[in-house]
């Protein structure tokens, strides 16, 4: 602990030195150490422009000998965030145990469609309610290594562990056939995990018809979560018919208790177009390759998604607000717990 404090003080001194050298004086007034990052709270001098501090991110990263430095605004304060060299994973089962010990959080996770994702920058558990007005559907975007599939797995594991099959049902489309094997015995599945494009067309057509039946009968239960991995690839391979069913489901599914969770590592306007822009107001965005992709994926200018650390470091965009979240990692013993749940 002593060595960590000493290193933090040294880094704070270097940050102040860089800013002073470039005529943007500021003081480091505090900070926070998270499992993946170190955040320094900054108090700029009255004459220092925030835009000038943002321009010095590369110089700060170089002075601290780290891969990147992000300048972020949080709770009305300015922060400089750098990755930890000894970054640690956030264990899903440990977080589940913590939440189960909290009566209020445990009760919240029993509400159909509510999923545990990880923790915020403040270290608080982050829950999302799929199918709510703020999160009718959700797009998970991020490049290889961002933790995109892990985010989807964590979401599904939370739903399966806290909610019964009479409350929540799952339809999983996994073209790669590798990331969701732990879920293949769950009683929550409405059908075996789908891998083939032709089968995906059939299952989405069935779900679309089920949506129409529910709307006619005014039925919303049990909630159905459609999880699609690699949405962009599926749309390109599946043709117009498959794209039309996906579009119908995201446009009208919420009123029938159907929520679409779609993952993509290609958040480009050419591939996703108006489908995403109009129908996915909620986004969970990990590291992307460029500022342009960050804009399309988040729907926000200067979101900084291209500067995220990867491996579960995400931004949640919902209700027009941006929340930093570290996605909980689903270890092998959690896979075993899910399989045991499926064998009951």
Architecture overview:
- The protein is of the alpha/beta class.
- The protein folds into two domains: 82 residues, Threonyl-tRNA Synthetase, Chain A, domain 2 (2-Layer Sandwich), CATH 3.30.980.40; 251 residues, Rossmann fold (3-Layer(aba) Sandwich).
- The chain is built from eleven helices and 13 strands.
- It has a nine-stranded mixed β-sheet.
The CATH architecture name of the largest domain reads: 3-Layer(aba) Sandwich
**Tally of discrete structural domains:** 2
CATH superfamily of the largest domain: P-loop containing nucleotide triphosphate hydrolases
Q: Shape, please?
A: globular
Query: CA-to-CA gap between the ends?
Result: 45 Å
The helix content, as a percent range, equals 25-40%
Strand residue content = 15-25%
- How many individual β-strands? 13
Q: What keyword list fits this structure?
A:
2 domains, alpha/beta, 4-stranded antiparallel beta sheet, 344 residues, Threonyl-tRNA Synthetase, Chain A, domain 2, 9-stranded mixed beta sheet, Rossmann fold, globular, 11 helices
